[in-house]
Specification:
Helix content: 25-40%
Radius of gyration: 18 Å
Mean pLDDT: 95
Number of helices: 9
Shape: globular
Structural class: alpha/beta
Low-confidence stretches: none
Strand order of the largest sheet: 3-2-1-4-5-8-9-10
Bound molecules: NADP nicotinamide-adenine-dinucleotide phosphate
Length: 240
């Protein structure tokens, strides 16, 4: 075993056969909401999921802004204020800036109860040297979401996507893996399946929320890559 392999001591007790990690649920009937869906990331995700046939509602602090953005996106996307967006959705993606993250989630605790929440927020700072990772008190944006939403099923995903590529209607496939983190296998499977609805995209399980900080922070490195190579870099996980 190499030092980075996971593994436990051999066990003589018979184990049930491991579930195929690519055996993911059908999520095509689920409604996807996007809080902060009027921004580039929210619009881009909404566009990709709606184009793949998913029902999508984008949220905003102002319903009219969401409705206007939804009309621009087409593909049946609807707009509502963030609370209504949360109420109407099965899966709710959090795509607000880190600055407004805690306050937004606190205010929607009731509407988000029982929902599958997907946090894609990257807590970053920017200075003359470029982007750098902030260190949230709770460990990560995703763990802050989990602490603020005890009645929701919180996962983390979609951190490493380029909003520019997502929104570019001429691009058919989004060539990237999506690292998905969470505490419950059924929930991470659902988010992986959602990611995999987008042509070219693949959802990969990447651990529990306590490891979300590295995933969120890696965006600072991708921003450096993008600046140096004038690119919109994504990620691929090899050998899976
Ligand atoms: N841009 C990317 O390429 C990218 C990629 C991966 C992940 N992300 C993450 O996705 C999130 C959104 O990114 P973005 O570039 O789309 O951000 P953004 O444009 O700055 O914000 C998204 C939307 O959030 C709402 N908003 C702004 N300030 C807010 C506040 N204080 N409280 C609540 N809502 C607020 C605004 O919508 P209304 O005014 O309509 O409410 C805005 O359109 C960020 O956390 C970012 O880290 C971004």
């Amino acid at each position: 075993m190499t030092t980075h392999d996971s593994g436990s001591a051999p066990d003589s007790a018979p184990k049930p056969p491991a579930k195929d990690p690519w055996d993911l649920p059908d999520v095509s009937g689920l409604t996807v909401g996007v809080l902060g869906g009027t921004g580039p990331q929210g619009r881009g995700l909404a566009y990709r999921f709606a184009r793949a046939g998913q029902k999508v509602v984008i949220g905003s602090r102002a319903a009219d802004r969401a409705e206007a953005a939804a009309a621009e996106l087409g593909h049946g996307v609807e707009g509502a204020d963030n609370a209504e967006c949360a109420r109407r959705s099965d899966i709710v993606i959090v795509a607000v800036p880190w600055d407004g993250h805690a306050r937004t989630l606190e205010s929607l605790r009731e509407e988000l109860a029982g929902k599958l929440v997907v946090d894609c927020v990257n807590p970053l700072g920017f200075d003359k040297k470029g982007a750098y990772a902030l260190k949230p008190e709770e460990g990560s944006a995703a763990e802050q979401a989990a602490a603020l939403l005890p009645d929701s099923r919180v996962t983390a995903a979609f951190h490493h996507l380029s909003a520019v590529l997502l929104q570019d209607q001429a691009i058919e496939e989004i060539d990237t893996d999506v690292l998905v983190l969470g505490e419950a296998r059924a929930d991470t499977d659902t988010v992986q399946a959602l990611a995999s609805r987008v042509p070219g995209m693949r959802g990969i399980f990447a651990g529990r929320l306590r490891n979300a900080h590295q995933v969120e922070s890696l965006v600072a490195n991708l921003i450096s890559v993008n600046r140096r190579y004038k690119a919109h870099a994504g990620l691929r996980t090899t050998d899976v």
